[in-house]
Write a structure and sequence with these properties.
31% helix; 5 helices; single chain; 9 strands
């Protein structure tokens, strides 16, 4: 049996990521983070959709002018309105970057003594799961294929 949540009111886990884009280009660390975010969103969708949580990824671009005002806003990830660091007990840092960032010191994230310039998918997934746990109610944690009496229900499941 496969659980199908179509037609139900889904909760939303929103992941927002912004980075510097200049003339269509970004720096290598932001380029790597983009691939990691896409992997993380795919993993989170697999885990969370059966729980009634939809994962939305919003990407935004910082202009050179915005970046020059505050380079630490580039490569920044928010999950449900809070910085990634909040969910994983991380600390924002900075280090020299390259390419389109020029000589600016760009955003890094430190978690458990490890410093990340490009944010790996596993940290994003971990943060996403913590954020999602805040969305889950006792009702949503029960199988969508069982009614309150513990019997199979035909409301959302279908044979595959």
């Amino acid at each position: 049996m496969e659980c199908d949540r179509v037609g139900e009111n889904l909760k939303t886990l929103k992941i927002k990521w912004q980075r510097l884009v200049s003339e269509g280009k970004t720096c290598p660390r932001c380029g790597l983070t983009e691939g990691e975010i896409e992997k993380a969103v795919s993993v989170l969708e697999q885990f969370l959709l059966p729980l009634g949580i939809d994962v939305i990824l919003e990407k935004s671009e910082l202009s050179v002018k915005e970046f020059e005002k505050n380079p630490l806003e580039s490569n920044k990830i928010w999950i449900n309105g809070r910085p990634l660091e909040y969910w994983i007990d991380g600390v924002t840092g900075q280090s020299a970057c390259c390419d389109v960032c020029g000589s600016s010191e760009c955003r890094t994230v430190e978690v458990e003594g490890e410093i990340y310039e490009a944010i790996p998918a596993d940290l994003i997934v971990k943060a996403g799961l913590f954020a999602a746990s805040n969305l889950i109610s006792a009702e949503a944690s029960e199988s969508c294929c069982k009614n309150k009496a513990g019997k199979d229900s035909n409301t959302c499941c279908r044979q595959k």
